[in-house]
Design brief:
The chain is mainly α. It has one domain (about 10-115). It contains 8 helices and no strands. The chain has helices spanning about 10-15, 15-20, 30-35, 40-45, 65-70, 75-90, 95-100, 105-115. The longest helix has 13 residues, at about 75-90.
Length: about 120
């Protein structure tokens, strides 16, 4: 999913507005960046014309939210930790964005907080 349609990335985490309104979600800039695909995500900065290259510094592919969560070589250790935590609770990896916020929010928030933007 490219997530460029209005609210596309956010909707991948919270497809149901009613369900979202019943959830307590911590609010901090890095999490907002992940939930919206905005902020310091290079693909977003590229769309705004603030950089001329949309590639992640890991050089694997374009830096998107999904790339950071599921593929970025630089975040291998952080990803291995969230995978371990999810699997220890009986969950599967890869998880959908919706599952990350609904079932594994504590692990997902910890993952996001471990990143440097």
């Amino acid at each position: 999913m490219d997530g460029y349609e209005e609210g596309g990335i956010y909707k991948s985490y919270f497809p149901s507005v009613n369900k979202r309104l019943t959830q307590e979600i911590p609010v901090f800039p890095e999490l907002t960046t992940f939930l919206t695909g905005h902020g310091n995500i290079i693909s977003h900065l590229y769309r705004l014309g603030q950089t001329d290259n949309r590639m992640c510094p890991c050089e694997l592919e374009e830096q998107t939210v999904d790339h950071l969560i599921f593929k970025c070589k630089t975040l291998r250790n952080q990803r291995e930790e969230i995978i371990r935590q999810i699997r220890n609770t009986g969950g599967n990896w890869p998880a959908t964005n919706e599952t990350l916020t609904n079932n594994y929010q504590i692990f997902f928030v910890k993952f996001v907080k471990s990143l440097e933007f």
